[in-house]
Amino acid sequence: MGDTKNFRRVWKKPKRPFNFELKMDELKTVGTFGLKTKRELWKSRTELSRLRHQARSLLAVRQEVREKEEPILMHSLSRIGLVEKSATLDDVLNLEINDLLARRLQTIVFKKFFFKTPYQARQAISHGHILIGDRVINRPSYVVKVDEEDSIKLTPESIYNKILSEPESDLGSPETENIEVPTETVTETKEETVEEKPEEKAAE
Length: 204
What we know:
Elements: H1 20-33, H2 38-60, H3 63-79, H4 89-93, H5 97-101, H6 105-112, H7 118-126, E1 130-132, E2 135-136, E3 152-154, H8 160-163
Antiparallel strand pairs: 1-2, 1-3
Helix pairs in contact: 6-7
């Protein structure tokens, strides 16, 4: 076990942090997946870089070594839904950052339970409203395995069971566009008063 004071950093900053296009792309990704800070994005990007480096290393080794190591990598990636079971190393090299972020518990809960925003899904996870099997998972960055997707559910005492089951308002939908809204009968009516114009004086 290593020294806790000399921990290894699990993320790397981009080489051009002040590039405008890169900053806009990062902000878009952060908002789409509901990330807390850019550090979470950098962690996923560093993990993607590690997977690509591992795939390139296997392409450079001897065939007998590759036949032994490649199935192990493919099996580990197929368990978390990044590639298919019949995928190759080229499929690993074609992975993008969105593929990794889509396997986060926050993203899957957001799509499965139809939360309004990914940040609302993050809040539900952080407050202990999400179960995977019989375990409460309160980490939005938890990587969900393929066989765990069907066991994701809300806790029985969660308030989201009621909120998410209530039908949304149909106001403004095409089915209710021509519905007349009943109003109270008006008892007093305004009578229009027509003022007579004064007769013009006869010209002398």
